[in-house]
Structures are given as C-alpha cells and as structure tokens.
Design a protein that fits this description.
The protein is 83% helix and 0% strand. It is globular and about 55 Å long. By secondary structure, the chain is mostly helical.
C-alpha cells in the first residue's frame, strides 16, 4: 500500500501538488489555532458559570449559528472564498485579543466567547473542506483525505502543548495571544491554495446558482431534495448529539476532580493532546487502511458499533477513566475516520450543495444537535443519558445499513 501511495504521489506535478501541500498546511493551522482556543474557552466558561450551565450555552448556539450561516451563505456568493475566510479570521482574531485583554471586565463575556468559539472553528473547517471537496475526485480522496485530516491532527497535537505546558505559568486568557500567528499564516496558506486551484486543469469551477430564496433556506431546500444530503445530516447530527451527551458527563467528572481554572486548562490541554495523538494515528494510517481493507460500507458501520460498545462498558463500570476513554474515543473518531468518510460523501454533489448545504449541515445543524442533546440533559435524569446515547447509535447504525444495503461488503 505504501508503495502504491508513493507511486501515486509521483504523478502529481506543479499546481496540483501545490494545492495538496497547501491544503495540508491549512488544515494544520486551523486545528492548531483551535487547540489553543478551545481549552481556554472551556475553562473560562466553567470558571464563570460552572459545569451545570453548559446545556444553556449549547442551546444558545442555535440562533447564533443560524445568523452566522445565513451571513456566510450570502457573502460567499458575493465576495468569494478568500475574502470570506479573511473576514472569518479577522473576527476570530479580534475575539481572541478582546478576550485575552478584557474577559474579566465583562461578566457575561465567557458565555459569548464560548458560543463564538463553537461556531467560527467549524466555519473555518467548512470553508477549507468545501474547496477540497470541489477539487479532489473520489478515487484520490481515499488516501488524500486521511492525509489532510492527519496534518490537521498534527497541528492539534503540537499546539495543544501550549495550554498544557503554559497555562499554570502564563494564565489561561493570556494564552489566546499565541493564536494570532496561526491566523496570519492560515490567510497566507489559503490565499496560495486558491491561486494553485485556479491553475489546475479540468477542475470544477466554483460558481453558484442565482438565489430565489433566502441564502439559509436555499441550503435547507438543497438538503430536502437530496437523499444523500439527508443521510449526511442524520449521521452528523447523531455524532454530535452523542458527543454532547458524553461531553456533559465528562465535564461533571472533571469539575469534581479538578477545582481551579488553571488546573482544568492544563488538564484539557493534555487530554486533548492525547486525543490528538490518537487522531493523527487514525488520520494518517487508520482511515486509509480501514477503507482499503474493509471498504466504505463497513467503515461507516464500524463507528457507531464501536462507540456503542465503549458506552456499554461505561454504563456497567462508571468511572472517571472510562468516561475519559469513551469521550476521547468519540472525539478522536469524529476528527479522523468519521470525518474522512463523511467528507467523501460530498464529492459527487454540486457546488451549491458543497458550499451552502454543507454550511447548514456542518455548522448550523451540527451545533443544533448539540442544543437538542442539551434539552435532553435538562429534562431527563442523569442516568438516562447513556440510554439516550445508545438509542441514537442504534438509529445511526440502522441508517447506515439502509443507505449501503445495495453496496457490496468490501466497497
């Protein structure tokens, strides 16, 4: 397999090779910045509001993501991909600097910063992957997508050392200044990525159809009219809902064992550092070998089946170690094998579906699933959460089996 990969890469020349390298670099920079911002936003929120307030902020993400996706779908048509990313990066940098300087001067700010963190990180991924899905064909995606995710995992793994090592020395909010160089380098990489893409022969041109309805609802209509998009929606919502339920249980254990903000920031940095190591291994090697060895159908099925098995273990033997393993597993799979097989589903779709419908699914509905899971947390007893998660995983498994029922097992 490695020999085949080596031979394949020898066929890339000029701008096509440049595009691949710049896509890897962009993925690295996005995840590196996110690995700095995410544990900080997490710790600042827990310091200000406590773990029991998480469901409320997850619910508040719904109107915020609706607004952001509506603006995104409107602007990307008018100003293009690079200018759209520039505005996203500018907003992210301003939010980080403001938080680092004034977070304790305005009591509700950690609430708003947590919401923004949840949205803009996904929006940056959305803009990169929409371009990748419009450039790479399905045959090449089987190995290239694992590499794109793998370099993203390397960025996460390396950058997570910043809060892990420095939180106790520098202080939580001051670490946000370390994110600024990553924003700048991302803009440079994305600019040359788009330039390289324009020079590649026989690549799909990024043009959008004329709008007849609002930009957000156009994305909804695209999803409604495509069975493939509806399937993508179901598996994305399932993954995020189960992840949210496990996230809440994990944070309960963390708040019980670690009491200071800097301790939690350091722990989150190390925890996600370990998760990112798992990501890199799965992204660079696991996703490619899994798809090649057992096929796309079994790869899709293996994810909910493994998560259900891990969750059953925690259900029978509840402990901090097992919830950390289960939550870490779902985060590792979300950003590796699941991400690869999910992104591959977008390849045969049109430009509007890859940009507008994808933004609705991967940003708005992705975060809306988190809010729906939050309602379950608020309404149901804590011990019911595992049963809700298992039910969602059962629906997910059934949907995959139905979608691929006519696909041979090895494909």
């Amino acid at each position: 397999m490695f020999k085949a990969l080596k031979e394949e890469f020898r066929n890339y020349r000029g701008f096509e090779f440049s595009f691949i390298v710049l896509a890897m670099l962009s993925s690295f920079l996005i995840t590196a910045e996110a690995s700095i911002t995410k544990p900080i936003a997490h710790s600042l929120f827990m310091e200000a509001f406590g773990v029991t307030f998480f469901p409320y902020v997850w619910i508040a993400v719904i109107p915020a993501s609706f607004f952001v996706v509506t603006i995104y779908n409107m602007l990307v048509v008018k100003i293009g991909c690079f200018r759209m990313l520039f505005l996203t990066v500018l907003a992210g940098a301003v939010a980080n600097v403001t938080t680092a300087s004034f977070v304790h001067d305005f009591a509700p700010w950690p609430f708003f910063f947590y919401i923004w963190k949840d949205i803009y990180i996904m929006l940056m991924f959305q803009q990169l992957w929409s371009v990748i899905n419009s450039t790479v064909n399905l045959a090449k995606a089987r190995y290239l997508y694992g590499l794109f995710f793998g370099f993203g995992g390397l960025g996460s793994m390396l950058a997570s050392m910043i809060p892990g090592f420095l939180a106790m020395k520098v202080g939580t909010q001051k670490l946000l200044y370390f994110s600024i160089p990553f924003f700048f380098l991302l803009l440079v990489a994305y600019y040359f990525l788009m330039r390289a893409r324009r020079q590649i022969e026989h690549v799909e041109k990024i043009t959008f159809t004329e709008n007849r309805v609002s930009d957000f609802y156009e994305g909804i209509l695209l999803i409604k009219n495509s069975s493939l998009l509806r399937f993508i929606l179901l598996i994305v919502v399932s993954m995020q809902a189960v992840s949210t339920l496990l996230d809440y249980q994990f944070n309960i254990y963390v708040s019980s064992f670690l009491t200071s903000t800097n301790e939690r920031t350091a722990y989150f940095g190390w925890f996600f550092g370990v998760v990112n190591i798992m990501n890199v291994m799965l992204q660079l090697f696991g996703s490619f070998f899994l798809i090649e060895l057992i096929g796309l159908k079994r790869s899709h099925l293996s994810i909910p089946v493994f998560l259900a098995s891990s969750l059953l273990g925690f259900l029978f033997f509840p402990s901090f170690g097992l919830i950390a393993f289960t939550y870490g597993s779902i985060k590792a799979l979300d950003y590796s094998i699941f991400g690869v097989v999910k992104e591959m589903l977008y390849i045969p779709l049109g430009i509007d579906q890859k940009f507008k419908a994808k933004a609705v699914i991967d940003v708005f509905l992705y975060r809306s699933a988190k809010a729906i899971a939050s309602l379950a947390i608020l309404v149901l007893p804590l011990w019911w959460i595992d049963y809700v998660s298992l039910s969602i995983l059962a629906i997910w498994t059934t949907a995959v089996a139905a979608r691929f029922r006519h696909v041979p097992v090895g494909e």
